Amino acid sequence: MAGRAARLVLLAGAAALASGSQGDREPVYRDCVLQCEEQNCSGGALNHFRSRQPIYMSLAGWTCRDDCKYECMWVTVGLYLQEGHKVPQFHGKWPFSRFLFFQEPASAVASFLNGLASLVMLCRYRTFVPASSPMYHTCVAFAWLSGR
């Protein structure tokens, strides 16, 4: 019982220490996001946002809230640089300029190439290993799931 209580206290302490990235915690960023959402993400303003949002952005799932976070991230980065501070992380990631609907184009390309390599290896595996082999179906299922 004491061991369980100690683990619970340790877990609660670790959760209390966990916090967002420096940029997420910045009051300027939080206030900017709240203000942007209030002004742009409800009622007629939301309809206006949707009407001017490029189709590829909406197909990729970018929402008004995501756009507010993105724009406010750059406002906060500008203030940090203006004050001579280092660029902070936001949501555990470094700020990157958006290209089309990719906020991190290099990461997206690397992920695509990783998925392509997984697909090539799956095709080679299915070509050279008979379907009657033990664990064949398990390996194929694992490849499909991990290649996502």
TrEMBL record:
It comes from Nomascus leucogenys. One of its GO terms (molecular function) is hydrolase activity, acting on ester bonds. Its main location: membrane. It is a multi-pass membrane protein. One of its GO terms (biological process) is GPI anchor biosynthetic process. Keywords: Golgi apparatus, GPI-anchor biosynthesis, Membrane, Signal, Transmembrane, Transmembrane helix. This is Post-GPI attachment to proteins factor 3. The lineage of its organism: Eukaryota, Metazoa, Chordata, Craniata, Vertebrata. GO terms for cellular component: endoplasmic reticulum membrane; Golgi membrane. Belongs to the PGAP3 family. The gene is PGAP3. It is found in: Endomembrane system; Golgi apparatus membrane. Involved in the lipid remodeling steps of GPI-anchor maturation. Involved in the fatty acid remodeling steps of GPI-anchor maturation where the unsaturated acyl chain at sn-2 of inositol phosphate is replaced by a saturated stearoyl chain. May catalyze the first step of the fatty acid remodeling, by removing the unsaturated acyl chain at sn-2 of inositol phosphate, generating a lyso-GPI intermediate. The fatty acid remodeling steps is critical for the integration of GPI-APs into lipid rafts. PANTHER family: PER1-RELATED, POST-GPI ATTACHMENT TO PROTEINS FACTOR 3.
